Every structure is written in C-alpha cells, then in structure tokens.
Amino acid sequence: MLNQDHQRIRNTATVIIIVLFILTILFTAGCVNNGQYGKRDITAGFWILKVDADGNRQWTTIIDGDPKITGAAIIQTRDGGYAVAGTEGLIPRIFTFDAGGDAVSDITTDTNQEWGESLVEAPGGGYVVAGHSGVLTRMDVGGNALWNTSIGDESERGERLVLVRAPDGGYAVVGGNHSVRLDENGMILWETAFAPDKNARTIIAAPTGGFVTGGTCSEGAWVTMLDAEGDRVWNRTFPSEFLTRLYTVRLSPAGTYDIIYATEQVITRGPEYSFVTETTEVSLSAKGELIAERPVQASPFIVATEDGGYAYAGYSNPKYNQLHESGHRGTPLQVVRLDNDGEVTWDQSFNIGNDRYVTSIIQTADGGFAIFGNSIYF
Fold first, then answer.
1. Over its length of 378 residues, how does the chain's per-residue pLDDT go in tens digits?
2. Long-range contacts of range 110-116, CB-CB < 8 Å, 24 or more positions apart?
3. 159: which DSSP letter?
4. Residue 174 CA, distance from chain mean position
5. Disulfide check for 186: which of 10, 31, 147, 249 has CB 3.0–4.6 Å away?
6. Where are the domains of the chain?
7. What whole-number distance in Å separates Cα of residue 226 and Cα of residue 372?
8. Are the beta carbons of 25 and 42 closer than 8 angstroms?
9. pTM
10. In whole angstroms, what is the distance from residue 15 CA to residue 2 CA?
11. Residue 35, exposed/middle/buried by CB under 10 A (0-12, 13-18, 19+)?
12. For residue 139, with 0-12 CB atoms within 10 Å meaning exposed, 13-18 middle and 19 or more buried, which class applies?
C-alpha cells in the first residue's frame, strides 16, 4: 500500500509538472511572440545518433524546423535502414531513413487525432503501428490503412502501448493491465487481463511460442510468462516500499530471463530535493525460478545486447544519481556499454545540441547502436 501511495503521489506530481511546463511554454511563447525580439515559434523534432560497436559516432540525423513534429519510437528495418513512428500535430507519420541516416520517405497516414506509440515492420512491406487511442493499424508503404483493430479502452491500456512481432506470425501488444495477441490480418486471437494494479511496460517473445511481459504493480515490479494461448505460466513479483520501475526484460544467451528494475527514493533537504535510484538485475529460469540477483548500473533508456550485456544512454543531472532523459544546457549525451558481468566496456560522450531529450536506444544489425530522442525549443 505504501508503494501504491507513493506511485499515486508521483503520478500526481508528474501531471502537475507537465501542466506547469505547458503553461510556462505558452506564457513564454506569448511573451516572445509579442515582445521586442519579434515572433518566434516553438519548434519540436527528433534526432538519431548512430554509433558503432565501440561507441564511435558514425552519423547524426536531426529532424527539426516543423513546430509540430515529434517522434515516439524507432526500429531498424530489414534493409538496414530505420523507421520512426511520430506525429505532425495529431496526424500520424512514419519517417524512414537509410543505413546512413539519410531521409528516404515521409509517410502520412490516413488517420487523424492519433499518434503512433510503437511500430513493427510488417511482412511484404509497410508497418503495423500501435496508436495512442488503442488502435493497431496495418499500413502499406504509401500510408494506406489495410486494417484497423481496437484493443481496448484507455483504462486498460495504461500509459503506453508496446508492440512486438510474434515469431510464428502476427503481433502481440501490451499496455496497462492488458495483453492482446493478433494474427497477420489483425484478428484478435486472445486477450489476457492482469490485475487492476498492474501496468505492463514491456514484452518479448519466448521460445515456447508465448511471451514474457512485465512492469510495475502496487507491490513493486512484476513479470509473467504467457503461453501461446495467453494463459499465465508463472508470475514473479519483486516487492519494494519505494517507487519502482521496470526497465527491461530480455532472454539472455544463457537462456535465462533477465529483468532490470529500479527503485527510487526522493531525498529532500529543505527546498532542495534529489532522486536516488538503485537498479537491480534479476535472472530467472525458463520456469520462473530465481537464479541470480545483483546490482547493475543502468538508466531507463537501456537495451540488452546480443553478447549478454547492456547499453544505456542519458544525461548527467545533479538531481539524479543515474543518467537522466535531460541535463543542463551544454551537457553531453552519454552512451555506456556494459559486458555480461555488468562492467563498463566503454563510456562515450557526444555533443548533439541543447534541448534534446533521449527516448530510447536500440542495438543495430552491425553490432552498434542507434540512440533516439526528441527536441523542443523556441
């Protein structure tokens, strides 16, 4: 109950911060637009930083200038390029890039009042996009919708939908206390509801034909395995009295399911405050049995690597003891790679400009990494 109360406080604080942030932008924009410096528009965009397996910068692509463009998710496509799910205002768009980061296409979908939160490449070309409204859309390369499937109302979906390809064809998506499996034609094969306090934040395919998913709940972090029919095989909870967040779940080269979750304490000293985060890796057997547990350094923007390690990104921020989504102006972006023992292999810093926020990191087919984020400034 204590953790649930903390989570409610954190959620409320987050809402307040967002509202104040928006009001501040609007007020400031109004002052700038009408002030002595002339009219200036708030602009938004996204960026991609590509590094090789040793952390050396290969290229940076920045999409800026349109006041309404944002990006939500990035994938690497089968041809070695990249696709980004984003939006222009409330019109969904998919941006594609070649392996060198050059823009290839800009697909505007025929759906309004929506934005993509997750995407996968579909067989035969095109994409399946999970939209904020709870609709999955299969589109061709021209942005034409081939099918649309609603997967539940907002109370079931939670904060964000996460979509993956199923190894035997079709798709699986989780969000909030809800998981849905679909075939290639968008037909729902099964739906699984979790307890109301559970909020699923990630999902991966399992060799058994099922899936492993997890997130947070009133007790702390949780993870569960679903079989090919959507039935629960096992369920594990990692209790904590502090705010908890699940960062990632992966199937390791050794066959274990490794979970990284974090607990966060808010430290106040008069008007000053800071956040102290501890991150833990837990390894489970295929049956959900605890094999090992250890502390590991990480940030929320993390990816499991093919060799059993991890890579993560973020900015140093004096209020946080781990890398954060943003830092002070002039603070470089850091990208860190860990080996399978949790030791730092390399730690690189990159100047990619101010007012840029990291969103995610993926490992690429050449063993390197693509780091993705948004920018907003005026």
1. 434 444 444 443 443 343 334 334 433 344 434 443 344 567 889 999 999 999 999 999 998 866 678 889 999 999 999 999 988 777 778 999 999 999 999 888 766 666 788 999 999 899 999 988 888 999 998 888 899 999 876 545 556 899 999 989 999 999 989 999 999 999 999 999 999 999 999 999 999 899 999 999 999 999 999 999 999 999 999 999 999 999 999 999 999 999 999 999 999 988 889 999 999 999 999 999 999 999 999 999 999 999 999 999 999 999 999 999 998 888 999 999 999 999 999 999 999 988 899 999 999 999 999 999 998 876
2. 110/143, 110/144, 110/145, 111/135, 111/137, 111/145, 111/148, 114/87, 114/90, 115/70, 115/72, 115/85, 115/86, 115/87, 115/90, 116/72, 116/73, 116/85, 116/86, 116/87, 116/92
3. S
4. 13
5. 147
6. 1-39, 41-103+299-378, 151-296
7. 30
8. yes
9. 0.87
10. 20
11. exposed
12. buried
Q: What is the CATH number of domain 151-296?
A: 2.130.10.10
Q: In what order do the strands lie in the sheet with 333-338?
A: 301-304, 310-314, 333-338, 344-350
Tell me the two tokens of residue 81.
Answer: 């390029």
- Please report, as a single letter, which amino acid is at residue 182: L
Q: Cα(157)–Cα(180) distance, rounded to whole angstroms?
A: 10
Helices in the chain by DSSP H: which ranges? 2-34, 154-157
Tokens found for residue 194: 């979790």
